[in-house]
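[step 3/7] fold_predict: job queued, chain A
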Amino acid sequence: MTASMLDSEITVHGEFDLAAAARFLTGFAPAGQPAAEAGALRVAFPLEGAWTPVGAVLRQRSPGAVAVAVHGPPEHAAAILAQVRRMCSLDVDGTAFTAAGARDPVVSLLQQLHPGLRPVLFASPYEAACWAVLSHRVWMTQAVRLRRRLTERHGAEVDVGGSRLTSFPSPAVLAELEFMPGLSGQKVQRLRGIAEAAAAGALDAATLRAMSPDEALDRLRLLPGIGRFSAELILIRGAGHPDIFPQDEGRLHEIMRDAYHLPEAGVPELAEIAEAWAPFRSWVSFLFRVEGEARLRESR
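[step 4/7] structure written:
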């Protein structure tokens, strides 16, 4: 049995463009989402905590509201809606985001180039952690193939408003993984460790967000195969922390050096620049990445 809450709405505080989020998500290979549908975004994922495969259809009726049709067990409808809200960064009041641009003309230009685009997240810290393991020391294309293969073989199909989408495998399923072509034995072991940690509640998004960033990053680095870079990915792109400047993301730092004309700037100097973006340092970092990738595609 499924719940379909066609009249449910997420109230949007600040600027947000669902079409921009859909374009990003469907072009973001690690998310494994199908091509964008005009006027709607369809997603399927394991519901955090219960890990039941569920889905949702999002449509933006007006600048200040996003309508959501929830597909999953009725008792989980509110939790599904909350997870979708976090995935689109709609759980954060973005009213003051424009002020970051007022303090920094480089950020203002990014906001003008990508109006209404907020960070689009992995469905959960669990999925972000699995991606961190899959993508470690391999080409992006190879990691994407591995994730797709893992999802197709071990995920669950969900009927999302008439479309069949495949949800990422639940922790219970992944904890039993013994072998998959193309995946090293070490990565299989690490994925199983991530799955066991998620099942035990160690990757709960709300818990991670409630901690200080340093405390959350230290906890995440206790997971198998998770270093500083991956811990930042999980906290920012999995749990959705809005105000962290990534200290270990070299590509972001390169883009910033170019944007600010500071070719020799070290990470401490870049972090000092980013202080003007607070309390949206994660959001601005996301826009820098998006713009950097767009320019890279144009140059090819």
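[step 5/7] annotate
The chain is about 50% helix and 10% strand.
The radius of gyration is 19 Å.
exit 0
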